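Quick check before the chapter quiz. The format below is the same one you will see on the exam, so make sure you can read both the input and the output lines.
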Amino acid sequence: MDKPRYTPDELVQFANEFRDHVSWTDWRHMDDKDAPDMVVLNLVYPSPATVRIAKTGPETFLANGLPGRTLVVRDSLDEMLETIGAITAGARLAG
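Here is the expected output.
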């Protein structure tokens, strides 16, 4: 069995880092045999949306479900946070 990509403490830290960049109501950990570990955020802005963020490699993150985007892949958590913040802020301003 593969080692989980996240420990419980890392998941909490990961979700809290997103809270600093985007508005979200809650999050949960998705862990099943058919998908990598994911954090699922329910966004408040620009409209209610569910975004799935997966850690797909040691320093690779993938987000699915962002407004106006199908997939976003970034090489670091910081880049992903910046991208999600920019997308949600841009959508909020445009709305």
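If your answer matched, good. The chain has one domain: 8-94.
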